[in-house]
Amino acid sequence: MNQDANGAELVEQWTLPFAARLGSSIRSKGLYLEIRARLPVAARKSLSLKAGELALRMPQTAAKQFAATSALVSRALEGIESLPVIPREIEDILGISTTERHRWLKDGRLPSAGTRSVKLRGRARKVTFHVFDPRVVEDILDHGLIDTWREDDAVTAAENRRNAAWKAKLTRARKTAREPAPRKPDGEPSAQVDEDRFKLRGWAEFERDTLLR
User: Fold this and answer.
1) Could you tell me whether strands 126-130 and 9-15 are parallel, antiparallel, or unpaired per DSSP bridges?
2) Mean pLDDT value of segment 153-161
3) DSSP of 119-138
């Protein structure tokens, strides 16, 4: 328990460890709100956050309440590093978009640590979302996996575009090959047109049987 310089209030400060913050101001704010929610309603406004530091301030006349609240904050900080990371926090920590988070969660590169349900203000139903293990998030950050994942996604997207273009080209070729040949005035098929159609069919089969394998 400390007393500020002018003796007007009691002050206690705690530094949120990096292993808990993971370099994110949004994560720091989330931890602060989690700790604040564990305090008595009357004491919550006495706790503040600035640059990764928690500060509890109360007037000298509230020494008993100050001591009790300080003990609650200290207890809440125990094991704070293991508090699950929520979606907006992981996006800030890893510098990723919501679309990337959904994609990598779906394909398993970003493993879920379970789900959490909360009731938001103004909504009747609870909102359920995935949370993440902070140690897994830290490992992804330390190994620079995000850049690797983005490169892999770019390669996959390019391959998908090429495949889609080939399929569209083959579809057009087959459609053209099925069209009836124009006829000469006497009703006989044009030899040149028939030859072109034969070449086109052969080309489509060649593309399908060789290049696309």
Assistant:
1) unpaired
2) 92
3) E-TT-SSEEEEE-B-HHHHH
| Token pair for 72 | 């609650």
Nearest one of 110, 116, 114, 115 to 141, comparing CA atoms: 110
Average pLDDT of the residues of the chain = 85
Res. 73 pLDDT band, cuts 50 70 90: very high
Place of tokens 């293990």: 133
Instruction: Say if CB 34 and CB 20 are below 8 A apart.
Output: no
φ/ψ region of 110 (left if φ > 0, alpha if ψ in -120 to 50, else beta) reads: beta
DSSP state at residue 56: E
**Among 37, 63, 46, 48, residue whose Cα is nearest residue 14:** 48
pTM, to two decimals: 0.71
Q: Count CB-CB contacts under 10 A for residue 55.
A: 14
User: How many angstroms separate the CA atoms of 135 and 101, rounded?
Assistant: 17
Residue 8: per-residue pLDDT: 80
The half-sphere exposure of 183 on its side-chain side, counting CA atoms within 13 A, is 5
pLDDT at 144 over 60: yes
For 131, residues 6+ apart whose C-beta sits below 8 A from its C-beta are: 84, 85, 86, 87, 112, 113, 114, 115, 116
